[in-house]
Amino acid sequence: MLNLDPGLMIWAWVTFFVLLFILYKVAWKPILSTIDKREKTIKDSIDRAEKAKEEAESLLAEHHKLMQSAEEESQKMLKESRELAEKSRQEILEQAKKSAGQLLEKAKSEIEKEKDDALYSLRSEVADLAKAATKKIIGESLDESKQKSIVDEFIRKMPESTQH
C-alpha cells in the first residue's frame, strides 16, 4: 500500500519550496508584470473608448443644435419671404388702386370737359338758331344787346338737365 517515507517527504517539500522560490524570482514577476501591462492596456482601451463615446455624444448634441438652428433659420427666412411677398403684394395693389383712381379721375375730368365743351357748343348753336329764328319770325335783325337778352332768356328756360 502506501508507504510514506519522511525523508522523501521532506525532500519533496524542500524541492517544492525551492522551485516555488525560483519560479517567484524568475517567472512570477514577469508573469505579474505582463498581467499588469495587459490590465493597463485594457483599461486604457476602455478609457479611450469612453472618451470617444463622450466626444461622439458631444458631437451628436452639437449636430442636433446645428440642425435645430438651421431649421429655425430656414423657418425665419421663410416667414420673412412670406412677409416680404405680402408687403409687395399690398404695395402693388395700393399702386394699382391709386393708378386706377387717377385714371378714373382723369376720365371723369375729360368727360366733364367734353360735356362742358359740348354744352358750350350746343349753346352757341342754340343761340345762332335762336337768332336765325328770331330774325325770320320778326323779319328784322335785332341789335346785339337785344339778341343777347333773348338768348339768355331762352337758355334759362332750357331744362336743368342740359345745363351744367
Topology:
Elements: H1 6-138, H2 144-157
Helix pairs in contact: 1-2
List its traits.
0% strand, 2 helices, mainly alpha
Indicate the proportion of strand residues.
under 5%
Overall average pLDDT: 86
Q: What is the percent of helical residues?
A: over 70%
Number of domains: 1
Computed CA radius of gyration, to the nearest angstrom: 61 Å
**β-strand number:** 0
The biggest beta sheet is recorded as: none
Q: What is the count of helical runs?
A: 2
Q: How is the quaternary structure best described?
A: single chain
Could you spell the SSE succession in H and E letters? HH
Which stretches of 5+ consecutive residues score pLDDT under 50? Answer: none
Q: Calculate the terminal CA-CA distance, rounded to whole Å.
A: 158 Å
Structural account:
This protein is mostly helical and about 160 residues long. The protein has one domain (about 30-160). It is about 90% helix and about 0% strand. The protein contains 2 helices and no strands. The chain has helices at about 5-140, 145-155. Helix 1 packs across helix 2. The longest helix is centred in the middle third of the chain and has 133 residues, at about 5-140. The protein is rod-shaped. The mean pLDDT is about 85.
